[in-house]
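Operator note (shift B, R.M.): manual run for Nitrate reductase requested after the automated queue skipped it. Running by hand, logging everything below so the morning shift can see what happened. Input copied straight from the record, untouched. If output looks odd, do not overwrite the archive copy; leave it for review.
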Amino acid sequence: MTKVTIQGERWFPAEESFSDELPKLWGDWYCDSETGKLRDVLMRRPGKEIEIISENNYSIYRWKAPMNVAKAQKQHDELANIYRQHGVNVHYVETQRDDRPNALFMRDQVFMTPEGAIVCRNGISARRGEERFTAEALGRLGVPIVKTINGDGWFDGACGMWIDRETVIIGTGARANKNGAEQVESELRNMGVSHIIRFEIPYGHAHLDGLINIADKKTAVLFPWQVPYDVVKQLIDRGFTIIEATDLEEIKVKASINFVALEPGKIVMPAGCPDTKSKMEAAGITVIETDMSEILKGWGAIHCMTAFLNRDPIN
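Run finished. Output pasted below as returned.
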């Protein structure tokens, strides 16, 4: 009878980093900027959930007015087609709760990182529960979920904004509390982010993307009367050109700062904002416009509707 000698454990841990393994095991999912060439986005086409909004309840959901469903879907489809025309893969959250009309504003559900998605926990109760279906969509696509905001924290994805691979703006206010922001910061620092620019979002504003946005590698567009000096100074110190959007109707009503960069120096923005558009074009930014008049009834626009899943790194 042959004697079997047990020689101990022969399995050893693989020491390759998660980021190195990610393309091989998960796919191409990456984001470390607001302007790198856009490759993949996650969206929610307005569905039957927006039909619950009426003249009697729109304020409960923080809307201006009920949307015409067909018009809202048409405007959403036109934006998705612009993305596709520029080589972007448009993925959808296919199912959603019937009582969550704000679900079309997907940016608030996901903050994307170089290693996967942070699934958010919204600041207002009228939106909580949307993230379950976002997580399902991310799982179906194979996007790693590196964190879900939990405990006493809340954080909307639009309260975070990439500046470069080592620098992120994190805003706190009505849609992101200290606990939620700290959870996001912890994950980012684990991925090599060394600089956090803190932004106290003023009372009466929800997110960063109504106040500041990035149009090119070193060009920021902002609402000068509501962005803290210390935030602007840190951008200037990093060599940024600052474009000041000052037309109040364009900023507050037509969401002129709520744009998405398709690549460095090329953006898609809400139509009907000639002053902001001309300032960006004068700075060398290529501008594509699309009608958002119906979507804006929900106090959101292009950046709000778009969760980035993959952008090329910026060299």
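Quick read of the result: The domain at 27-311 is CATH 3.75.10.10 (L-arginine/glycine Amidinotransferase; Chain A). The chain has one domain: 27-311.
Leaving this for review. - R.M.
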